[in-house]
Design brief:
85 residues; mainly alpha
Length: 85
């Protein structure tokens, strides 16, 4: 187990105090649980979600490359000299 000392901005301290009060728990316990939850979630996301993010990005780009899309509007100019137009 590790003990750390944190300096929090006043607005974050108020949020943490309110959360601890509403949960009826000690502020240190609430802070520890929040930190654990964030770190464990982020660690899992970094390892598992990268392929998922890439897949979602690829799927969302499909419409951009369909015939008639705005992305391909200049496709007919490929290979033409712009100065002579």
């Amino acid at each position: 187990m590790m003990t750390i000392v944190l300096t929090l901005p006043p607005e974050v301290e108020i949020i943490l105090q309110n959360r601890a009060y509403h949960q009826g728990q000690d502020i240190a316990i609430v802070a520890s649980e929040l930190l654990q939850q964030i770190l464990l979630t982020q660690n899992g996301k970094n390892e598992r979600s990268q392929p998922s993010k890439l897949k979602m990005a690829a799927l969302s780009a499909i419409d951009d490359y369909l015939p008639g899309s705005d992305l391909l509007v200049f496709e007919s100019l490929d290979g033409e000299d712009f100065q002579s137009l």
